[in-house]
Each structure stands twice: as C-alpha cells, then as structure tokens.
Amino acid sequence: MATHMTKKxxxxxxxLAHQVSLKERRRFIRHPLCFPLKYHLLKxxxxxxxxxxxxxxxxxxxxxxxxxxxxxxxxxxxxxxxxPFENRIFNIKAxxxxxxxxxxxxIYNIGVCxxxxxxAFKVKLIEQLYLISEFRDLKTIQLGKEVSLNxxxxxxxxxxxxxxxxxxx
Length: 169
Known about the structure:
The protein is of the alpha+beta class.
C-alpha cells in the first residue's frame, strides 16, 4: 500500500511539473547566461538510454534552462545535467519540456524544467558563482593585482546578496 501511495505521489508530481512547464515560457524571467554543461538522458517511455551530450546554457530562469544540442531529446524525458564550476560538479535533475529544431544553426534548443526546488536553487547558486568569478576577473584588471575568489565573494555578497535572498525567502 505504501508503494502505491509513493507511485501516486510521483505521478502527481510529474503531472504538476508538466502543468508548470507549459506555463514556464511566459511565467519566469529568463536570464541570458552561457555556462558549460553535460547532460545524460536518463530514460524515456520506460527505456534506458545512454545518450550524452555537451553544451552550454542559452538562458536560465528559476523554473528551468535552455541549452543547445546536436541531437534532439524527446519531450518528457528525464535528464541529468552536470554543471561544473572550478573543482566541483553540480548534478541537476530536469524534465525536457520542449525540443525545437533551429534549421539555421542545425541544432536543437532544449528547454527543461527543474524536477525539484533544490535543483533550481543549485542552478541559481551556480549562476552566482559564475558572476562572482567574472567579478573577480574585473576586480583583478581594475586593481592590477590578483584578487582571490574568497575576496571577490565577500565583496559580491556585501553588494548583491539582497538580490539573491529576495528570490527565495
């Protein structure tokens, strides 16, 4: 009986994710950001898959992200996205909500919604880490000396953390 309830909850969560994903294109503000990612198609229609790809983000929002791929990824597929930053890899589980062919560039634009709230939070943290890294590079150029990631992080947090906190609390 407990297993049945768990499966029912999972189906309900998938239905809710699908409903949210239909609205996402209009609901969330997209931020054009370009950072690297790898993806792995977990399964589609009950079959295992070994499709992997390397790409970069096109844009990111609180609800999902868009990236380009050389091959199509079926709508409804669950994928694992791996996003590196320095010596860390962040794993994010997402659901493919659309796969649109771009005939000019001969690629596919893959839109995904995050499967769990903490996956969205991870991506937001990764975004902040990349912005802090760019800020560090700018400060290094401005000051004419190397600025550490810790120094840049402290200044970034002092200046901009209120923006980040408004998103979640």
